[in-house]
Amino acid sequence: MRLGNPRFIAALSIVFPPVFLAAQPSASAPQAAAAGAFSPVAPSERIPNLDAEKARLRQYHDCTCTCGCYARDLDLQADRAIQYLRRRAARRQAQEKLALVLDIDETTLSNYEEMAAADFAYNADVFNAWVNSARAPAIPGTLRLYNEARRLGVDVFFLTGRPEAQRAATEQDLRGAGFHDWKQLILRQPEEAKATALAYKSAGRARIVAGGYRIVLNVGDQWSDLRGDPEAEYSVKYPDPFYFIR
Protein backbone atom coordinates (compact mmCIF):
# COMPACT_ATOMS: atom_id res chain seq x y z
CA MET A 1 0.00 0.00 0.00
CA ARG A 2 1.13 3.48 -0.77
CA LEU A 3 -0.42 6.73 0.38
CA GLY A 4 -0.11 9.95 -1.58
CA ASN A 5 0.38 12.24 1.46
CA PRO A 6 1.50 11.70 4.17
CA ARG A 7 3.61 8.64 3.56
CA PHE A 8 6.36 7.09 5.61
CA ILE A 9 9.19 5.34 3.76
CA ALA A 10 11.66 2.89 5.23
CA ALA A 11 13.82 0.71 3.04
CA LEU A 12 15.25 -0.80 6.21
CA SER A 13 14.64 -0.62 9.95
CA ILE A 14 17.41 1.14 11.86
CA VAL A 15 18.00 0.66 15.55
CA PHE A 16 20.22 3.32 17.05
CA PRO A 17 22.60 2.02 19.71
CA PRO A 18 23.05 3.82 23.03
CA VAL A 19 25.69 6.52 23.15
CA PHE A 20 28.69 5.84 25.34
CA LEU A 21 31.32 8.27 26.54
CA ALA A 22 34.83 7.33 25.56
CA ALA A 23 36.73 5.88 28.49
CA GLN A 24 39.72 7.84 29.73
CA PRO A 25 42.98 5.93 29.24
CA SER A 26 44.54 4.63 32.44
CA ALA A 27 48.16 5.05 33.32
CA SER A 28 48.69 1.39 32.51
CA ALA A 29 47.00 1.50 29.07
CA PRO A 30 49.32 0.31 26.31
CA GLN A 31 50.54 2.83 23.82
CA ALA A 32 49.26 2.59 20.24
CA ALA A 33 51.57 0.89 17.81
CA ALA A 34 53.54 3.15 15.50
CA ALA A 35 51.70 1.72 12.44
CA GLY A 36 48.76 -0.60 11.67
CA ALA A 37 46.52 0.46 14.55
CA PHE A 38 42.89 1.59 14.26
CA SER A 39 40.57 3.23 16.76
CA PRO A 40 37.46 1.34 17.87
CA VAL A 41 34.56 1.47 15.41
CA ALA A 42 32.26 4.43 15.99
CA PRO A 43 28.67 3.54 17.04
CA SER A 44 27.28 4.93 13.76
CA GLU A 45 29.22 2.28 11.84
CA ARG A 46 26.74 -0.26 13.16
CA ILE A 47 24.08 1.23 10.85
CA PRO A 48 24.15 -0.53 7.45
CA ASN A 49 25.31 1.49 4.47
CA LEU A 50 22.27 2.82 2.61
CA ASP A 51 23.61 2.12 -0.89
CA ALA A 52 24.46 -1.44 0.14
CA GLU A 53 20.94 -1.93 1.48
CA LYS A 54 19.41 -0.58 -1.73
CA ALA A 55 21.50 -3.10 -3.64
CA ARG A 56 20.12 -5.84 -1.38
CA LEU A 57 16.57 -4.69 -2.10
CA ARG A 58 17.18 -5.11 -5.82
CA GLN A 59 18.77 -8.52 -5.27
CA TYR A 60 15.87 -9.62 -3.06
CA HIS A 61 13.38 -8.59 -5.74
CA ASP A 62 15.41 -10.33 -8.45
CA CYS A 63 16.00 -13.43 -6.29
CA THR A 64 19.78 -13.17 -6.73
CA CYS A 65 20.90 -13.02 -3.09
CA THR A 66 21.05 -15.28 -0.06
CA CYS A 67 18.62 -12.90 1.70
CA GLY A 68 15.60 -14.55 0.06
CA CYS A 69 13.37 -14.26 -2.99
CA TYR A 70 10.56 -11.69 -3.10
CA ALA A 71 8.43 -13.56 -5.66
CA ARG A 72 8.70 -16.81 -3.74
CA ASP A 73 7.80 -15.12 -0.46
CA LEU A 74 4.77 -13.45 -2.06
CA ASP A 75 3.60 -16.78 -3.47
CA LEU A 76 4.01 -18.44 -0.08
CA GLN A 77 1.71 -15.91 1.57
CA ALA A 78 -0.79 -15.99 -1.29
CA ASP A 79 -0.97 -19.78 -1.04
CA ARG A 80 -1.67 -19.52 2.69
CA ALA A 81 -4.49 -17.09 1.95
CA ILE A 82 -5.97 -19.37 -0.72
CA GLN A 83 -5.85 -22.41 1.54
CA TYR A 84 -7.66 -20.59 4.32
CA LEU A 85 -10.28 -19.18 1.95
CA ARG A 86 -11.07 -22.66 0.65
CA ARG A 87 -11.47 -24.06 4.16
CA ARG A 88 -13.62 -21.14 5.28
CA ALA A 89 -15.86 -21.18 2.20
CA ALA A 90 -16.44 -24.91 2.70
CA ARG A 91 -18.10 -24.24 6.07
CA ARG A 92 -20.04 -21.10 5.23
CA GLN A 93 -23.50 -20.92 6.68
CA ALA A 94 -26.67 -20.36 4.71
CA GLN A 95 -27.14 -16.69 3.73
CA GLU A 96 -23.68 -15.82 5.07
CA LYS A 97 -22.05 -13.02 3.09
CA LEU A 98 -18.30 -13.59 2.97
CA ALA A 99 -15.82 -10.86 2.05
CA LEU A 100 -12.18 -10.81 0.99
CA VAL A 101 -10.44 -7.45 1.53
CA LEU A 102 -7.39 -6.66 -0.59
CA ASP A 103 -5.01 -3.73 -0.40
CA ILE A 104 -3.75 -2.56 -3.81
CA ASP A 105 -0.18 -1.21 -3.82
CA GLU A 106 2.39 -3.99 -3.29
CA THR A 107 -0.50 -6.38 -2.56
CA THR A 108 -2.59 -6.48 -5.73
CA LEU A 109 -0.47 -4.34 -8.05
CA SER A 110 3.31 -3.96 -8.08
CA ASN A 111 4.95 -0.53 -8.23
CA TYR A 112 8.47 -1.95 -8.29
CA GLU A 113 9.24 -0.48 -11.70
CA GLU A 114 8.58 3.04 -10.41
CA MET A 115 10.36 2.44 -7.08
CA ALA A 116 13.49 1.04 -8.68
CA ALA A 117 13.64 3.85 -11.24
CA ALA A 118 13.42 6.36 -8.38
CA ASP A 119 16.18 4.54 -6.44
CA PHE A 120 13.57 3.87 -3.72
CA ALA A 121 13.03 7.58 -3.04
CA TYR A 122 9.49 8.96 -2.93
CA ASN A 123 8.32 11.92 -4.97
CA ALA A 124 4.57 12.45 -4.90
CA ASP A 125 4.37 13.93 -8.40
CA VAL A 126 6.40 11.09 -9.92
CA PHE A 127 4.45 8.39 -8.10
CA ASN A 128 1.07 9.93 -8.98
CA ALA A 129 2.10 10.10 -12.64
CA TRP A 130 2.95 6.39 -12.43
CA VAL A 131 -0.46 5.59 -10.90
CA ASN A 132 -2.24 7.60 -13.57
CA SER A 133 -0.37 5.71 -16.29
CA ALA A 134 -2.23 2.54 -15.15
CA ARG A 135 0.78 0.36 -15.96
CA ALA A 136 1.35 -1.42 -12.64
CA PRO A 137 1.27 -5.20 -13.21
CA ALA A 138 -0.60 -7.70 -11.08
CA ILE A 139 1.09 -9.57 -8.30
CA PRO A 140 0.53 -13.13 -9.60
CA GLY A 141 -0.34 -14.77 -6.28
CA THR A 142 -3.01 -12.16 -5.58
CA LEU A 143 -4.56 -12.69 -8.99
CA ARG A 144 -4.77 -16.40 -8.20
CA LEU A 145 -6.38 -15.56 -4.85
CA TYR A 146 -8.82 -13.17 -6.49
CA ASN A 147 -9.92 -15.75 -9.05
CA GLU A 148 -10.32 -18.37 -6.33
CA ALA A 149 -12.51 -16.00 -4.31
CA ARG A 150 -14.74 -15.45 -7.33
CA ARG A 151 -14.96 -19.22 -7.91
CA LEU A 152 -15.95 -19.74 -4.28
CA GLY A 153 -18.56 -16.98 -4.31
CA VAL A 154 -16.65 -14.70 -1.93
CA ASP A 155 -17.10 -10.99 -2.65
CA VAL A 156 -13.90 -8.97 -3.11
CA PHE A 157 -13.40 -5.47 -1.74
CA PHE A 158 -10.37 -3.40 -2.67
CA LEU A 159 -9.47 -1.06 0.20
CA THR A 160 -6.66 1.29 -0.78
CA GLY A 161 -5.03 4.44 0.52
CA ARG A 162 -5.08 5.92 -2.97
CA PRO A 163 -7.23 9.07 -3.16
CA GLU A 164 -10.63 9.24 -4.80
CA ALA A 165 -9.11 11.35 -7.60
CA GLN A 166 -7.26 8.24 -8.80
CA ARG A 167 -10.36 6.05 -9.13
CA ALA A 168 -10.48 5.98 -12.95
CA ALA A 169 -6.78 5.17 -13.30
CA THR A 170 -6.97 2.52 -10.58
CA GLU A 171 -9.99 0.82 -12.14
CA GLN A 172 -8.27 0.84 -15.54
CA ASP A 173 -5.12 -0.66 -14.07
CA LEU A 174 -6.98 -3.36 -12.15
CA ARG A 175 -8.95 -4.45 -15.20
CA GLY A 176 -5.89 -4.38 -17.43
CA ALA A 177 -4.04 -6.55 -14.91
CA GLY A 178 -6.80 -9.17 -14.94
CA PHE A 179 -9.07 -8.16 -12.05
CA HIS A 180 -12.75 -7.90 -12.99
CA ASP A 181 -16.14 -7.83 -11.28
CA TRP A 182 -15.09 -6.82 -7.76
CA LYS A 183 -17.75 -5.83 -5.27
CA GLN A 184 -16.37 -2.40 -4.33
CA LEU A 185 -13.27 -0.25 -4.71
CA ILE A 186 -12.83 1.91 -1.60
CA LEU A 187 -10.53 4.92 -1.93
CA ARG A 188 -9.57 7.67 0.50
CA GLN A 189 -12.01 10.57 0.43
CA PRO A 190 -10.89 14.21 0.84
CA GLU A 191 -12.24 14.37 4.39
CA GLU A 192 -10.11 11.33 5.29
CA ALA A 193 -6.85 12.84 4.04
CA LYS A 194 -5.40 13.38 7.52
CA ALA A 195 -6.40 10.03 8.99
CA THR A 196 -3.63 7.54 9.68
CA ALA A 197 -3.57 4.44 7.50
CA LEU A 198 -4.56 2.34 10.50
CA ALA A 199 -7.60 4.49 11.28
CA TYR A 200 -8.63 4.82 7.63
CA LYS A 201 -8.38 1.11 6.88
CA SER A 202 -10.23 0.19 10.08
CA ALA A 203 -13.07 2.56 9.16
CA GLY A 204 -13.24 1.06 5.68
CA ARG A 205 -13.58 -2.45 7.06
CA ALA A 206 -16.23 -1.24 9.50
CA ARG A 207 -18.34 -0.04 6.56
CA ILE A 208 -18.03 -3.44 4.91
CA VAL A 209 -19.18 -5.17 8.10
CA ALA A 210 -22.05 -2.69 8.43
CA GLY A 211 -23.17 -3.86 4.99
CA GLY A 212 -23.83 -7.32 6.41
CA TYR A 213 -20.54 -8.94 5.42
CA ARG A 214 -18.25 -11.15 7.42
CA ILE A 215 -14.63 -10.36 6.53
CA VAL A 216 -13.07 -13.79 6.45
CA LEU A 217 -9.74 -12.78 4.88
CA ASN A 218 -7.71 -9.59 4.66
CA VAL A 219 -4.44 -9.33 2.70
CA GLY A 220 -2.01 -6.40 2.76
CA ASP A 221 1.67 -5.50 2.71
CA GLN A 222 1.56 -3.20 5.77
CA TRP A 223 0.53 -3.98 9.33
CA SER A 224 -1.70 -0.90 9.12
CA ASP A 225 -3.65 -2.72 6.38
CA LEU A 226 -4.53 -5.52 8.77
CA ARG A 227 -4.70 -4.31 12.35
CA GLY A 228 -7.47 -2.35 14.06
CA ASP A 229 -11.13 -3.11 14.71
CA PRO A 230 -12.81 -4.79 13.03
CA GLU A 231 -10.17 -7.31 12.01
CA ALA A 232 -10.67 -10.17 9.57
CA GLU A 233 -11.03 -13.75 10.73
CA TYR A 234 -7.65 -14.37 9.11
CA SER A 235 -5.11 -11.78 7.99
CA VAL A 236 -2.13 -12.36 5.71
CA LYS A 237 0.77 -9.93 5.46
CA TYR A 238 2.85 -9.78 2.31
CA PRO A 239 6.54 -8.86 2.58
CA ASP A 240 7.41 -5.26 1.79
CA PRO A 241 10.98 -4.17 2.54
CA PHE A 242 10.62 -1.13 0.27
CA TYR A 243 8.62 1.22 2.51
CA PHE A 244 6.68 1.37 5.74
CA ILE A 245 3.34 3.08 6.46
CA ARG A 246 1.87 3.58 9.92
Keyword list:
246 residues; alpha/beta; five-stranded parallel beta sheet; 37% helix
What's this, in brief?
The chain has helices at residues 50-62, 70-90, 112-117, 124-133, 140-152, 167-176, 197-210, 223-226; strands at 98-102, 155-163, 184-188, 214-220, 234-237. The chain is an alpha/beta fold. It has a single domain (50-237), classed as Rossmann fold (3-Layer(aba) Sandwich).
What does this entry look like structurally?
- With 246 residues, this protein is of the alpha/beta class.
- It has a single domain (50-237), classed as Rossmann fold.
- The chain has 8 helices and 5 strands, in the order H-H-E-H-H-H-E-H-E-H-E-H-E.
- The chain has helices spanning 50-62, 70-90, 112-117, 124-133, 140-152, 167-176, 197-210, 223-226; strands at residues 98-102, 155-163, 184-188, 214-220, 234-237.
- Strands 3-2-1-4-5 form a 5-stranded parallel β-sheet, with helices on both faces.
- Helix 2 runs parallel beside helix 5.
- The protein starts with 49 loop residues before the first helix and ends in a 9-residue tail after the last strand.
Structure summary, number of beta strands = 5
Which residues sit in consecutive blocks of at least 5 with pLDDT less than 50?
Answer: 4-29
Number of domains: 1
Report on the biggest sheet. Answer: 5 strands, parallel
User: CATH H level: which superfamily?
Assistant: HAD superfamily/HAD-like
Order of helices and strands: HHEHHHEHEHEHE
Count helical runs.
8
Measured as a percent range, the helix fraction is 25-40%
- How large is the radius of gyration? 23 Å
The largest sheet has its strands arranged as: 3-2-1-4-5
Name the overall outline: globular
